[in-house]
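Minimal example, chain plus nicotinamide-adenine-dinucleotide.
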Amino acid sequence: MTEVNPFETAQKQLDKAAEVLDLEDSVHEALREPMRTFIVNFQVEMDDGSTETFKGYRVQYNDALGPTKGGLRFHPEETLDTVKALAAWMTWKTAVADIPYGGGKGGVVCDPTQLSESELERISRSYVCAISDFIGPEKDIPAPDVYTTSKTMAWMMDEFSKIKGVNAPDVITGKPIKVGGSLGRGDATARGVIYTIREAAKEMGMNLDGAKVAIQGYGNVGSHAHRLAEEQLGANVVAIGDAEGAIYSEDGINYSHIKKNMKEHGIFAKDIEGTEYLGDGNEGNGKLLELDVDILIPAAIENVITEKNAGNVDPKILAEAANGPTTPEADDILNDNDVYVIPDFLCNAGGVTVSYFEWVQNRNRYYWSEAEVYERLDKKITKAFKNVHSKAQAEEVDNRTAAYMVSIEKIAEAMRLRGWV
Ligand code: NAD
């Protein structure tokens, strides 16, 4: 877990794809930087009566295919480069998933663990107030991300609606169901991950029944991926880890057993019956990544697979549920070792796909059943996977490059048709 500038990683990945695509300089140059970057500073009254100034970012990376879309993070170490990288990845993600959106991302530099709920509400409302002229259902549609929740989205939607004098559920996604959220959003990202693994296994002629799986990260994506790997794939999850540590069992770690344990003892207790403790934090998680498994799902943070450990990371399928878990140097090593990589912005596109469904439902004021959401999600993700896989085969490139090629070709064509380049 090294210090790598995520925006430099995003640019390097783009450069590689641009070279294979023989992309004209004008398009390549335009795609190396965001179209619009907003930095706002706004004041918030704290519970003790004092006033603090907070810094917020919103990056609209490229909107050739439609309004920009992407999450909002509340994080003490948020930087503009992180937001720019995530906005770039959102741009490729919406294009690869064939969603009529561009990519964006935002963040507020704050530590939510040190703030009361009413302070968080005032920060959310003030941030929206500061960016209200730049966002909107047809301009830029935020969503939850690190340390922001459906409640944050409800406050922000309400504030935007008040400022504009309209009822605008479609300005933001990831809302609670009662104020326009979509059914099926909760586990949508993990579902997308599982669908892509299913399709990859089909292409590889691999039997998933009892296949060994390791999952790093046990939040929204990782924990649902555990359940769905059992339920939908019949796979055997042998290792799981979170920021605290990681555990392993050759016979498999049952999802309901872990849920029950977590309810009783909090997150992974070291002495869960039938499991071996791999170690605390990075130590345990480092070991988890190097286990002999069929499928590895990094679902935590960026840059966990680097040139230092990539030679020992050798699953048949690497399903990148997290954003940016693999550095470009590590990517080359994985490709040399014939690891089938499902690149992040394809693998984790399930979340934004259901966010798009939420926006569609909000705009029509007509809501779908959960089964309908899942069926449409499966169709979209399966099609996106097949497009990338066949591109990789046809062009004899790795899957990440193929995914970039699919999305960049689409965006570049829209830019040409609009007369930008
Ligand atoms: P989350 O905050 O719910 O969970 C993160 C998990 O990672 C936690 O279990 C945490 O303990 C663990 N973690 C943090 N640092 C770690 C470390 N150093 N080693 C091991 N584990 C560590 O987040 P999430 O929503 O599940 O997102 C996980 C990843 O998936 C992120 O990269 C996120 O950007 C990406 N992603 C999420 C969604 C979504 O819909 N939630 C969509 C697309 C991509």
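The pocket of nicotinamide-adenine-dinucleotide is lined by residues 146, 189, 216-222, 241-243, 282, 285, 299-301, 321-323, 348, 351 (CB under 6 Å). The first helix runs from residue 6 to 21.
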